[in-house]
Design goal:
seven-stranded mixed β-sheet, five-stranded mixed barrel, globular, 500 residues
Length: 500
């Protein structure tokens, strides 16, 4: 059985859904292939847990870096479920707690309370961060792929003109960091790292021009999706199916063959063997067979080596999901929180816990009087490479560290299945993103993986490309769709910029 399409998309993540929706909206015959049985959501005993715990940001705002697609499409499709948070994020250490809300004055007061005498310098820092965020926004709009455009003198000239003010404001921001308390800088690192897919260590110089953008982002608004973040994925799926796109789920991809005129994808599902032909192919960077099935020849080997070098430095998420009685949760704990378990003056991702908590009264995610909590720690190896005992130790250490901050945690647990958490962390690698350390170089933000591959008709998508978390996931899908032929009216970037 062979069917032909204009565009084939392979992936389970949000960026693949965005790319599929945009390409199909442009009138192209589109197929999305979701290999394996990767769940979109985990529901058990009345609880619903987000498997992708990245924080929805950039929705419903007029921030310059945000593509109109986030405002006009994703936000509008899910408007009833999306709730803007204040505070959007909470940073907790053994001796400090800072609420990162929408009012800058309140944030400065919080920091002054925790770090007396710092308000003046922090205010200057946020002045510099706001200016830098605007410059970075303009730069991103002019260079949506965040890669050095070697293709022509014209694109290089445009790039250099945009890069000069970026470099100037970056240096100003770095100077504002000098003299700040080490623990305070760790809090800034935690915020930027929690909202992106890069590990930022501002005190050591490991930051990117995007770092100030993530410090400024909660002031624009972070969102909670009532009922679960999987509803965003479901709204996209419903829309592209209405537009005529097809979706094959739970299949096994046997091979991918790429030629100049077509892409051939062989697959098998429930005893049926099929073959799909596409003029163009979009592939998620999280697809586990990317290197083995697509980048396995001489043409793709160099790209594969670059991808593997980046991943060799990465940290991977392991998440424990639990249902708690509301009475055991601190009254002022925010829906999104970052816990620094130790105050060493150095930000170490292995000693950080990222929390995602359902809102009080959200009965779509937890029974009345209870709440769903997902606690994530990043480890040095992908969970699928570790044995059960190794992961059980990670889970036990994570729960032990949580109990230091929430002494009544264990006695208020209503639901916890550690073995299921082991299985989910291994199977959800194509949904959740790893975190890659930022380089000590302003050009590191431009060391993003490009959407283009060595094959002219194959394009990548995924948050790993831009390192910008939820926003980067959506923007990478927009970029890939644009390269695959989606019109700007369908949400793609301006096509005149696609020569980058």
């Amino acid at each position: 059985m062979t069917k032909s399409y204009d565009v084939i998309v392979i992936g389970n993540d949000l960026s693949s859904l965005v790319a599929t929706e945009l390409v199909s909206r442009s009138g192209k015959k589109t197929l999305l292939i979701k290999e394996g049985k990767v769940p979109d959501v985990y529901s058990e005993s009345g609880y619903t847990f987000n498997l992708d715990t990245s924080i929805p940001a950039g929705l419903g705002t007029l921030d310059a870096v945000v593509h109109p697609y986030l405002e006009n499409d994703l936000y509008q499709m899910n408007r009833a479920a999306l709730k803007m948070l204040n505070p959007g994020l909470q940073i907790i250490t053994p001796s400090h707690r800072v609420d990162v809300g929408r009012e800058r004055e309140g944030l400065i007061r919080d920091i002054e309370r925790e770090f007396p005498g710092s308000s003046s310098r922090v205010n200057e820092l946020y002045d510099a961060a706001e200016t830098m965020a605007l410059v970075f926004s303009r730069f991103t709009l002019e260079n949506p792929f965040l890669c050095i455009p070697w293709r022509s003198l014209k694109t290089m000239t445009r790039f250099v003109k945009a890069f000069i003010p970026l470099r100037r404001e970056h240096l100003k921001f770095v100077r504002r960091l000098e003299g700040l308390d080490d623990t305070l800088i760790c809090l800034l690192d935690a915020q930027a790292s929690g909202l992106s897919d890069r590990l930022h260590r501002c005190g050591d110089g490991y930051l990117t021009p995007a770092t100030p953008y993530f410090l400024n982002l909660p002031l624009k608004g972070l969102f909670y999706c009532a009922g679960g973040k999987h509803l965003i994925a479901e709204s996209l799926t419903e829309r592209f199916l209405r537009q005529g796109a097809e979706c094959t789920s739970g299949c096994e991809i046997a091979g991918v063959d790429v030629d100049e005129g077509y892409c051939r994808v062989a697959w098998a599902a429930e005893g049926t063997v099929g073959e799909s032909l596409g003029e163009r192919l979009i592939v998620s960077s999280k697809w586990k067979k990317l290197c083995d099935c697509l980048l396995n020849d001489r043409k793709g080997r160099r790209f594969s080596q670059r991808l593997n070098r980046r991943r060799a430095k990465a940290f991977y998420p392991f998440t424990v999901h639990m249902g708690l009685f509301d009475k055991g949760i601190p009254e002022r704990l925010a829906e999104y929180a970052v816990i620094l378990c130790k105050e060493t003056g150095e930000f170490r991702i292995q000693e950080v816990i990222f929390l995602e908590l359902s809102q009080r009264g959200d009965t779509g995610r937890a029974p009345e009087g209870r709440r769903a909590l997902s606690a994530t720690r990043y480890i040095e190896e992908p969970p699928e490479r570790l044995g059960d005992e190794d992961l059980r130790r990670v889970a036990a250490d994570l729960l032990g560290d949580l109990e230091v901050f929430f002494p009544f945690l264990r006695e208020n647990v209503d639901y916890l299945d550690t073995e299921k958490c082991l299985t989910l962390s291994r199977s959800c690698g194509e949904l959740t993103g790893c975190k890659i350390p930022a380089e000590r170089n302003i050009l590191s933000v431009l060391d993003c993986l490009p959407n283009r591959t060595p094959f002219e008709n194959v394009f990548l998508t995924g948050d790993e490309l831009l390192g910008m978390g939820f926003i980067g996931e959506v923007l990478s899908g927009i970029n890939a769709a644009s390269l695959a032929g989606a019109s700007p009216a369908a949400g793609g970037r301006d096509e005149k910029r696609n020569d980058d």
